[in-house]
Amino acid sequence: MNALQSYKRIEKPLILAIESSCDDTSAAVIRDTQLLANLISTQTVHQQYGGVVPELASRAHLSNIVPVVAEVLRMAEVQVQDLDAIAFTRGPGLMGALLVGVSFAKGLALATGAKLLEVNHLQGHILSPFLQTSEDVRTPRFPFLSLLVSGGHTQLVVVRNPLEMQLLGQTIDDAAGEAFDKCAKVMGLPYPGGPHIDRLAKLGNPLAFSFTRPYLQGLDFSFSGLKTSFLYLLQRELQKDPDFVEKYREDLCASLQFTILDILMRKLRKAIKQTGIRQVAIGGGVAANEGLRNAVANLGQEMHVEVFIPERRFTTDNAAMIAIAGLFKFRAGLFSDQSVKAVPRASVELMQLSQ
Prior knowledge:
single chain; five-stranded mixed β-sheet; 42% helix
């Protein structure tokens, strides 16, 4: 009997999930695919540094994890002793931050007898469309294509089933989210910069400026040339006019976002044609970007493919997506033991069948 046959025999497990891969401490509770509660404690200390400081993130997780878990259990109206399993992010992520979540999950499992479920953070993003918040939520059919766009990752993945994913292409340098944030920083926008660019882009002309687009065969991405092109434009124009950014900020944001989305959509269109798969989903923090959401919806209409776009609250780092990924492993009987360790670097194809 294979894994996908065996998991179907398990009925409605109660799972607590913990996400601590970066700068958000999150916990969630699901019963089967039904989300009972999801709570995120966002760390604001990093804003003054223009990026996440790993040591500060780890300390904040230590302070937040107990009250966050206690509160999410209260919100879900369940008792800790009733949990069937505890899912946790094993990687990828910041090592110190991951250690907090992994260690807490292992300790709680020892205390309660609940099963342990290690989850790949990237797979959590990919499987987030399967979260059920109401009876009318549409979910993809297997296989489907996933465009994963987060702060540190830009990938195209074929999801053959919940436990088998194939990486088709990924960034060879900066990710799309990094391009957003780094370009926002040189314009003087607060961290994280992506949401500010998305907001300002609506007010500008997307064709006002032209930036470098990489030429890469296959399905890999590159955004470093775009980022450098943007920086050189600002340096050149600021020498002529010190108020250039202030005068043209909306047009700069609109043109930058247009270029990033064009690169993403060209590769996604190519992947659809190459694979013939007619189900497409997006995931990751940049999937909260309204421009990206509209671009994927428009591409779906253009190519007559079915598109699945998760709610915005499930695009950024959250424990609900870790819970749903853990559920599929629970159904397959793929449990971890107390020897499990955090893995700060891990591919989307790793850890799906580990025990």
